[in-house]
Design a protein that fits this description.
Helix 4 links the parallel strand 6 and strand 7. By secondary structure, the chain is of the alpha/beta class. It is globular. Helix 1 packs across helix 6 and helix 6 runs antiparallel to helix 7. Helix content is 43%, strand content 16%. The strands form two sheets. A five-stranded parallel beta sheet has the order 4-3-5-6-7, with helices on both faces.
Length: 219
């Protein structure tokens, strides 16, 4: 079933309006080691005029997580998928497979779309170099975005892609966004101090919008 032009979801104190043409689903690790990079991607999306979507946005509800992910991807014209966690971790030496699974959903969504106009568009992020050709060789022809695992590196790569999408609203340069990140980080730390590791998604997005609005006023 095709998504409606606009979907309204209610979070916390009020609704956030999601317009499919400017919604971007972010598929990244949510753990402490990746948190700064995840926050940077969210803020970069907001600064370019996009509405970030995530599996975190509905919190814990009586609905399978995969159903929430599917809905968020279908309701988004764009998605960003980070595959940095390509090596085994922990005593069992297991790699993370949630991210490639969700990338596969986004690729299938694009392929199955009947209309070329508005077809789902996605970016996959991989570590610098050509190592990805060994662990996910099927994306070799798609020119994935590469980053060095740093905040400046991932912001630059993500913004280079977002700035070339037809629905981009604003095109600040990465240096401007990186310079505004500390204010967003402070707002997120305050939210996490109140709510714990995963504050309401609407509050995170609204904090980004507030900083971005000030960023525009000062530009």
């Amino acid at each position: 079933m095709a998504p409606s032009r606009q979907t309204r979801q209610h979070f916390g104190q009020g609704p956030l309006a999601f317009d499919r043409s400017t919604s971007v689903f972010i598929n990244c690790p949510y753990d402490e080691d990746f948190r700064a990079l995840f926050d940077a991607v969210v803020f970069a999306a907001v600064c370019c005029g996009f509405m970030p979507r995530s599996a975190l946005e509905t919190g814990t509800v009586a609905e399978p997580r995969m159903a929430r992910i599917l809905r968020a991807i279908i309701e988004s014209k764009y998605s960003i998928h980070d595959l940095s966690r390509c090596k085994g971790e922990g005593d069992a030496n297991l790699a993370r497979f949630n991210m490639p699974l969700e990338l596969g959903i986004a690729m299938a969504h694009r392929h199955l779309s009947r209309r070329a106009a508005g077809r789902h568009d996605w970016l996959v992020l991989v570590p610098l170099g050509h190592q990805y050709q060994a662990f996910i060789s099927d994306i070799s022809g798609f020119d994935p975005g590469m980053h060095d695992g740093s905040v400046p590196g991932i912001v630059t790569t993500v913004m280079a892609w977002l700035a070339t999408r037809p629905d981009t609203v604003r095109t600040p340069n990465p240096r401007q966004v990186i310079s505004a990140l500390p204010e967003f980080d402070a707002a997120i730390r305050a939210l996490r101090g109140t709510w714990g590791p995963f504050p309401p998604w609407a509050d995170i997005v609204l904090a980004g919008l507030k900083v971005a609005k000030q960023f525009e006023a000062d530009a």
